[in-house]
């Protein structure tokens, strides 16, 4: 009997093939459980790809606060780009003329945010207090010079309680 | 023939295994997995500069000591130069009480081991000091600053330091070294 004939005969006599899905469902269940476990419920946004955070071993769970991101090419507040930079250096035109540590564009936005928070504090009868907390995400290769200018501008605008974002190194 | 026999013999063999239709479940999983993959943050962020959580009453004792440090104007001043040399000055009312210098390693890096051992020495001699001021020069990389903060906040593994509650006189052991860290030179001049 030729192979073709044998195959035809087999096809006529054999039962319809059913796909075994049990193993696949098991695998998917494990995957879903793993993903649910590693899902983060924090409102803190992850930094963009261009911003690599340093690792720390003593950090604690971050709390939601005004977010400042300092990457080699930009400074943002709540993901709104305010200042462009080159290799992590603020251009001289973006610094105040009478105070080379102050970044006016950043100060303006921070003052507005402080004003907004103080208004919320007033309207909620101090239920939501203005604490002057900023959560700063800084690229690990940045020089302290830029961070220093951002810290100075923040403190001028009333944000003195700073939290530095890091990647948790365990332990 | 009874109705039951009719159902059994006409509608199927009672000995044949019933198969569960897993296709809808698979469809649900295939939808859930991409949604979860998008919503999952694999990077675990943490926040530095907040106080290290300490179990029980030791934190209250630390807080009281920090307040006392502020009143006495006592604190550890850490100066980090661009050449990776670290100078540690323990000051009380602007006067240097204890000082040490950590030279850079041969491959021009901060000598972290020596830095930690100097910190431990200062902490052991002054267990009530928790306040520290970090003064890096402008060329120091942020990653190095975070490394120094890490080393300053908590001591080496299995090492604990006594902290006395100023009110009760009770002594607690804590791994916390210099928990109250601030950047001291943001106004320009190095301290």
Overview of this protein structure:
The complex is a heterodimer of chains A (171) and B (191). Chain A has four helices and seven strands. Chain A has helices at residues 3-13, 22-38, 104-123, 144-156, and strands spanning 55-56, 66-71, 74-77, 80-86, 89-90, 133-138, 161-168. In chain A, strand 4 and strand 5 form a beta hairpin. In chain A, helix 3 crosses helix 4. Chain A is elongated. Chain A starts with a helix and ends with a strand. The mean pLDDT of chain A is 84. Chain B is 35% helix and 23% strand. Chain B contains five helices and eight strands. Chain B has helices at residues 3-11, 23-39, 58-72, 112-125, 142-153, and strands at 45-48, 74-80, 86-92, 95-102, 131-136, 161-164, 171-174, 180-183. The model of chain B is unreliable at 50-55 (pLDDT under 50). The chains are: A alpha/beta (171), B alpha/beta (191). The interface between A and B is large, with 50 and 45 residues. Strand 7 (161-168) of chain A pairs antiparallel with strand 1 (45-48) of chain B, so a sheet runs across the interface.
């Amino acid at each position: 009997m030729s192979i073709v004939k044998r195959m035809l005969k087999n096809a006529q006599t054999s039962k319809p093939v059913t796909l075994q899905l049990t193993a696949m469902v098991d695998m998917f269940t494990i995957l879903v459980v793993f993903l649910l476990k590693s899902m983060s419920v924090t409102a803190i946004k992850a930094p963009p790809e261009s911003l690599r955070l340093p690792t720390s071993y003593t950090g604690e769970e971050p709390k939601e606060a005004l977010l400042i991101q300092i990457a080699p090419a930009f400074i943002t507040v709540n993901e709104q780009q305010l200042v462009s930079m080159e290799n992590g250096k603020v251009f001289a035109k973006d610094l105040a003329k009478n105070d080379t540590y102050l970044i006016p564009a950043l100060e303006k936005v921070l003052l507005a945010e402080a004003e907004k928070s103080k208004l919320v504090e007033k309207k909620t009868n101090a239920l939501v207090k203005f604490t002057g907390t900023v959560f700063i995400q800084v690229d690990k290769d940045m020089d302290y010079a830029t961070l220093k200018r951002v810290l100075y501008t923040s403190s001028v605008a009333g944000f003195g309680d700073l939290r530095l974002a890091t990647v948790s190194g365990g332990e | 023939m009874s109705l039951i026999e009719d159902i059994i013999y006409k509608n199927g063999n009672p000995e044949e295994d019933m198969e569960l239709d897993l296709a809808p479940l698979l469809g649900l999983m295939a939808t859930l997995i991409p949604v979860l993959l998008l919503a999952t943050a694999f990077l675990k962020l943490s926040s530095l500069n907040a106080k290290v959580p300490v179990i029980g009453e030791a934190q209250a004792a630390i807080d009281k000591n920090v307040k006392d440090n502020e009143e006495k104007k006592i604190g550890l001043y850490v100066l980090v130069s661009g050449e990776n040399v670290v100078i540690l000055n323990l000051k009380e009312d602007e006067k240097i009480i204890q000082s040490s210098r950590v030279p850079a390693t041969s491959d021009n890096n901060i000598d972290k081991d020596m830095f930690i051992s100097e910190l431990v020495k200062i902490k052991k001699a002054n267990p009530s000091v928790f306040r520290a001021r970090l003064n890096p020069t402008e060329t120091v990389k942020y990653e190095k600053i975070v490394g120094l903060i890490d080393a300053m906040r908590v001591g080496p593994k299995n090492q604990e330091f006594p902290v006395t509650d100023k009110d009760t006189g009770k002594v607690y052991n804590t791994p916390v070294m210099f928990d109250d860290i601030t950047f001291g030179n943001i106004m320009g001049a190095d301290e």
